[in-house]
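Continuing the batch. This is chain 6 of the set; chains 1 through 5 are on the previous pages. Same settings as before, nothing changed between runs. Recording input and output for traceability.
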Amino acid sequence: MPTLFVVSDLHLGETGLARMFHDHAQGMRFADLCSLVSRTPDGELLLLGDIFDLTASMPPARGVKEFGRVLDVPLEDRPPRPLPEICASIRENNPIALDALEALCEDAPVTLVVGNHDRHLAMPEGRPALAFAGLSGMRIESMSVRKLADKTVVLQHGHEWDPSNATPTGGGEVMTAVIHHAVVPFLRHLAPRMNVAIDPDRVIALRPEERVVPVLERWLKAGMFERFIDAFVEILVANGYMSRAISWLATPERIRGRLKDDDDLWERAGRAALGALQGSRGIPGKPPPPDILVLGHTHVIDWAVQEGRPGVQRLYVNLGTWAARTSDAAGPVEAILPVFRLEAPDRGKVVATLRDLSNQAKLLQRFEVRA
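Output for chain 6:
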């Protein structure tokens, strides 16, 4: 039976944009993982979505120039680039990680389950774009269902459970585009402020992304913050993130209320996943009832065991992210590199482990069940 290695949310991106994955740090550990998969008999690597940050490379459809005009920053509206060009650029700017991935595709099965940031790769133009970037050896799926011993394993990225990211029009893609192509360039253009350290790249590590509002309230001078809020709301309205009527209510206080709701995403995802394991809630895509349900997307590691009838346990695991993650203006940036390993060492047993590759493959969690 195969030994499955699963990672999620690497967010490989382009140089020039703010980046959540750094090839000389995370890339080296990813290359180590690819080597381990290659050396493992019947090893397989499953990439559980948001591996490529394609949406970060796609500018907002409109409003960038006006955003810059209001804030005295020279910005221009730009058309989207072809998908093959973006994929090739991501490959060029992450050579350690993607050279290792290409080599692994020659030695072992590699499957990409697409997420909301790389959903484009499941479209007809996705396969040629990957081939253009030298990554034609991967299998592409929207969801993966596996059978180990007598256990059913369902693996999804998890954005399907999140209304703002379940579809391209839900608002998540607009927010990503605005932050990368309007907010970060604005911050990079600001003159240094005495006694306040401003880190433009930090804003793309914020989860949820709307936390940019209270963070900028710490960084910007009085007056400039209010100008920013007005321009930020306007570009969101121009791109359909919110209606004009709702924008009139978009005060910093109301935005903070929205932040609290979004910050609970990992908890909502966990409750929904446990409900799915119990059979009281459906799963997007309607897979068979799982014994093990694996998600990503929330950028928060989660591990929960659901007790069923006597002697029966089911597992929910969320793989968090390999990307930088923070929630405030000046605190530490998390750098955990979680890897989920799933195997059936014999026909009567299934073993699942979660390890942190940033800390000498430290064991974080272990789950073992008998068939």
